[in-house]
Amino acid sequence: MKVLVAVKRVADPNVKVRVRTDHTDVDLSSVKMTINPFDEIALEAAVRLKEQGLATEVIVVACGLPASQETLRTALAMGADRAILMQTDAQLQPLAVAKLLKVVVDGESPQLILLGKQAIDDDSNQTGQMLAALLDLPQATCASSIELSGLNGERLVVTRETDEGQESVDMTLPAVVTADLRLNEPRYVTLPNLMKAKKKPLRLIAADSIGVDISPRCRTLSVAEPAERKAGELVPDVATLIARLRTESTLI
């Protein structure tokens, strides 16, 4: 079974990101970048399937700037076999990423496509669903457990978290699955594996050479820092709390 994992290069979640002075976007200059945490979980799931002998190859794909090669090398060090970068300087939105990934999926024909449920920079939570729609494949989002079933592992049972509790989904392969935080805990990348990753194949494809419309559908009007939260206040008892809540003009 061939597994394809999509990863995105994002700002390190432990770094505070600042807004540009012109408020057009966030300032990523001199900011440490890393693999999107949800995508890292999806990659870990794919590598574990290979270690269990259930997957034969793990392919990792990224879309974006040439600097995404560093992200892909980290993914290769985690255990992926080869990498593909759909390279472009354009600002990519979820639909554009889904279109680019579809081209890769059509060429590679993987049995399982894994993505993080969302990217921590835009929190769109759309790419996996859009990709499944473009491919006309079954999908399961927010997966907290993945198990292969059937005599030859041709079916997939995914436990996913919903607002009402856990839901189990049984589907045929190929399929698209997006990973939630509780799926696993990704491994640390060691220096020897980073050195080995430099020798693994990384294919570059110019996104503007494949005839796919990746023009943005939305336009950012302005970006601003979140409003500062007011300091909390302690009240002596419940009666005082209720009285204060009734007098607050922001509450209905």
Give a brief description.
Residues 23-214 form the Electron transfer flavoprotein alpha/beta-subunit N-terminal domain. This protein is α/β, with parallel strands linked by helices and 252 residues long.
The CATH homologous superfamily is termed HUPs
CATH architecture: 3-Layer(aba) Sandwich
Q: Characterize the main sheet.
A: 9 strands, mixed
Distance between the first and last residues' Cα: 55 Å
Spell out the helices and strands N to C: EEEEEHEHEHEHEEEEHEH
Low-confidence stretches: none
Oligomer: single chain
Structure description:
This protein is α/β, with parallel strands linked by helices and 252 residues long. It has one domain: Rossmann fold (3-Layer(aba) Sandwich). It is 27% helix and 29% strand. The strands form three sheets. Strands 11-10-9-12-8-1-6-7-13 form a nine-stranded mixed sheet, sandwiched between helices. Strands 2-5 form a two-stranded antiparallel ribbon. Strand 6, helix 2 and strand 7 form a beta-alpha-beta unit. The radius of gyration is 21 Å and the shape is globular. The termini are far apart. The mean pLDDT is 90. This is Electron transfer flavoprotein subunit beta. Pfam families: ETF (PF01012). Keywords: Electron transport, Transport.
Primary descriptors:
9-stranded mixed sheet, alpha/beta, 13 strands, two-stranded antiparallel sheet, ETF_b, globular, electron transport, Rossmann fold, 252 residues
